User: Fold these one by one.
Assistant:
Number 1:
Amino acid sequence: QVQLQESGPGLVRPSGTLSLTCSVSGVSVDRSPYYWGWVRQTPGKGLEWIGSISFGGSTFYHPSLKSRVAISADTSMNHFSLKLASATAADTGVYYCARIKEGFRVVPQFDQWGQGTLVTVSS
Amino acid sequence: DIQLTQFPSSLSASIGDRVTITCRASQSITNYLNWFQQKPGRAPKLLIYAASNLQSGVPSRFSGSGSGTDFTLTISNLRPDDFATYYCQHTYTIPFTFGPGTTVDIK
């Protein structure tokens, strides 16, 4: 059974870096055809895709966040991580990690999700 | 970015009702459209992928249709567990985006 679990600080100072990790069990993060992604839910923008990393390590980011975001994976720990720099109050929200099933002629589908973690950006 | 609009934004329904939610894309996304259910304090749950395919384990009273720019999610025979917020999402091109949601509550 696939499970995802987010972890990381619940409070980030303005201008600081938001850092989260998603621990994965039941499947390897380097297994085809899965990608791994981050989605957040904020009062201002609702559900927002942040970015994804492929089983081969390729990354894809939301253009509006691209200058501040980095997603990486650690296959030895079987987890993937999110870093969002220069955080502001607008980044406050619930952050979810998700598994994305992809492939040739396969409509990408976010089929497994972590429970979510609340991150507040405040001094 | 491809924008998704949903209507209605909310609706009230009774147990046993048939409910239809519409999602419209700002440009054609062929069938790259997924539907999610979200309950308060919980992560979104995938219901329908590729516009009309039922995700494993999801009750058959949920169904999806559409292609191009117009899509619908139908819930037949509404059950108490179905009162929630429903979101559409496209995965046609980056950035993937979600609709604003439709809340289904009890009449």
Number 2:
Amino acid sequence: GAVVSQHPSRVICKSGTSVKIECRSLDFQATTMFWYRQFPKKSLMLMATSNEGSKATYEQGVEKDKFLINHASLTLSTLTVTSAHPEDSSFYICSAVTSALTDTQYFGPGTRLTVL
Amino acid sequence: KQEVTQIPAALSVPEGENLVLNCSFTDSAIYNLQWFRQDPGKGLTSLLLIQSSQREQTSGRLNASLDKSSGRSTLYIAASQPGDSATYLCAVKSVTSGTYKYIFGTGTRLKVLA
């Protein structure tokens, strides 16, 4: 089956530093990847939609300059949290799809970010 | 704006019970609806995907139905087991301003007692 990986699985950083999270589709080409954020005991909130070779589409309220998304290839998207602060601490999950309309979305295992 | 709600928010049942989880959405113009399972601190596992033209999907002890016109879906779990304990999320795929996206429900935390 389709596998999506995320790296790192956990990261702890100091306030003010930048953190990069990678999302890879291991055995398929992902035309679109999605980035979500999840607070404890809450559902997933879509942050942005990332299409290969084009700029990401951010959801309302998500700062594009703070959460930089790059989708340079059909198998890799990265999310960089710039100048991280404690309120950015969260569980970040990516997903990937192979078709714009009908395919199942496959999720990565998530990245736990803790900003001290 | 599409909103997805799940009821109940939490559920605790003895092993062996059949149970129903509910998902409702406000905009019936969806492409599909997907049910997921999430274990604590983990990513999501897809359980069932129902296309907008379908009424139900089955996989093992799981059955999901979709009534698009009324904006509802149910996930039926037969003969529940302790291993079914997890958070169950539904998500609808719809288009907003020309961009398709997945909107997640609030989740149902299920605990099956041995």
